Amino acid sequence: MPATLFHRFVLTIGFLSLFHVAYSAAQHRSYLRLNELDFTHLPLDVIIQAFISLFVIMYGVMNVAGDFKEIKASAELENRFWETFKNVPSFYTFSHRGRFLNPSYSSYKGDDE
C-alpha cells in the first residue's frame, strides 16, 4: 500500500502529540518544583495521551514505510543457482600488478601486440 497524504498527516499528528506529551510532562515537573511538592507520577491524561500518540505513530509508520520483506534468508536465495554463489562481482579485480610484472601484458582484449 503506497503512503498516502492521509497516512503522512496521521504520522505528523502523532509526532506533534508526542511532543506535546513531553512538554506537558516537563511542565508538570516544573509545577511540582515551584510548589515544592514530591513527584509521584504523571497525571493520567498525560499517560493516556502518550499511549494514544504511540499507537498513532505506529499506525502511521507501518503505512508510510511500505511493504515489508520476509525475514527468511532463503526467500531471496530460492531463485539462484549453485554456480552463481561463487560468482561474486565485488571480488573482481581488473587493476592488478600483472601489468607491471610482465612487459607484454595487455589489459585490453583485442589488443594486437
Task: Give your account of this protein's structure.
The protein has 113 residues and is mainly α. It has a domain at 5-64. The protein is 52% helix and 0% strand. It contains 4 helices and no strands. The chain has helices spanning 5-34, 44-64, 74-77, 98-101. Helix 1 runs antiparallel to helix 2. The protein is elongated and about 90 Å long. The model has no long low-confidence stretch (mean pLDDT 80). It is found in: Endoplasmic reticulum membrane; Golgi apparatus membrane; Early endosome membrane. InterPro entries: MMgT. Residues 1-26 form the signal peptide.
How large a portion of the residues is in β-strands, by DSSP E?
A: under 5%
> What structural class is derived from the secondary structure elements?
mainly alpha
- N to C succession of SSEs: HHHH
Largest sheet: none
Overall 3D form: elongated
- DSSP helical segment count: 4
| Cα radius of gyration in angstroms | 30 Å
* N-to-C span: 60 Å
Arithmetic mean pLDDT: 80
The number of E-state strands comes to 0
Low-confidence stretches: none
Helix content: 40-55%
What attributes characterize this protein structure?
113 residues; mainly alpha; 52% helix
Question: Could you give the topology of this structure?
Answer:
Elements: H1 5-34, H2 44-64, H3 74-77, H4 98-101
Helix pairs in contact: 1-2
Brief overview, please?
With 113 residues, the chain is mainly alpha-helical.
